[in-house]
């Protein structure tokens, strides 16, 4: 079977975006679930979100809304009312997962199994199956003991977790999962922590989103600003091979794709400042915000995206590529050299032994091949079994893409950058 949904999927997107997700759909052709999704997407010919700009090259294809199915009930008695974390509950850099734990969609202590992450991200926000599988399995391998991992720091015996290097959690995964230039979190080597919400950064996000609404467009502009700000202020700023190239875009696009409220009038979702505030645990009002750590909350009367168009890997990759097309610096792996404004990109040809080249990363399947294979090369200080879990997850995402095979990366250039070579101390 041969499917070519790309142009249908991407409508009037820029040409380089048009090239690649085809193969993902080809890979999906043997999977009935993914195929059904692809067919849904194909109905979307030529439509783009009203008023969307270049960052929104992928629109929500199916203008359906079913209030009953999409309503997330967090009222008293639902079993999912908001309960703030206690002293023994783990919380970390991901507001989405923190909120899930605060509402008991994930275990309230913040330590969950890979399966729980997969199920919950689909059920509560409509993450697609491939993306959920990859993110969750990767968490198990990089931050946990394959089966379970912590959304915060190292679990204690109390949480039933594995301690030490097998239980470092999202907080302890700097440059592997967690990275610099996050939307509302500080850079580890600048502030001494990588997970606490910074009110000023939240305010900037709002300031970059005029008219009361946060959009993919405004988030992409804000990301560019955050990137430049960190180059200008953090002597150790580092844009990592995986944490920078693939996790950083997720940290921005997830805000709109997963936190927006859906309705019959706006099936693609709208994200008001108030809804954003709730998800991020920020009190007060515009110009007088106050981030209160641990209070991430799913808004009352909130409707998630429709499961008929889950946000899966092809969507996410298209969003990431569209953003990189607008701001090519996002793909610059590299960092400052110990002083501000000294950003030195590494040579991608040297890094990958000639398998990839900077100039062609946005062509064909190259971005997907490059970014996901770098994930397998994150070279966690871990054991073989964990590494093979990562390799398997990467293999699943890339199967059928005919990627040029990246066997190893040459870390010599990276070693010269202090943001890479420094040993993290977590606050
Ligand atoms: C298993 C699924 C998930 C994993 C493994 C995961 C992991 C992470 C990690 C490692 C970070 C830190 C990235 C950085 O340093 O900037 C992060 C940040 C973030 N995540 Fe998640 N996440 C998941 C699901 C979600 C969901 C479902 C949402 C939305 C509801 C979400 C929203 C965000 C946002 C907005 C940030 C950026 C926070 C900020 O700096 O302002 N994530 N996540
Ligand atoms: C939400 O849950 C509460 C408590 O179980 C229930 O009374 C209410 O009917 C539910 N709301 C909807 C719209 O299902
Ligand atoms: C979501 O949209 C619906 C329909 O417009 C509205 O009733 C509800 O209050 C909104 N929820 C949030 C959290 O804004």
From TrEMBL:
Cofactor (UniProt): heme b
Pfam families tied to this protein: Peroxidase_2 (PF01328)
InterPro entries: Chloroperoxidase (IPR000028), Chloroperoxidase-like_sf (IPR036851)
GO molecular function, one term: metal ion binding
Domain Heme haloperoxidase family profile: 78-322
Coiled-coil ranges from the UniProt annotation: none
Residues making up the signal peptide according to the UniProt record: 1-19
Keywords, alphabetical: Heme, Iron, Metal-binding, Oxidoreductase, Peroxidase, Signal
Keyword Metal-binding: yes
Membership in a protein family: Belongs to the chloroperoxidase family.
Protein name: Cloroperoxidase
Species this protein is from: Ophiobolus disseminans
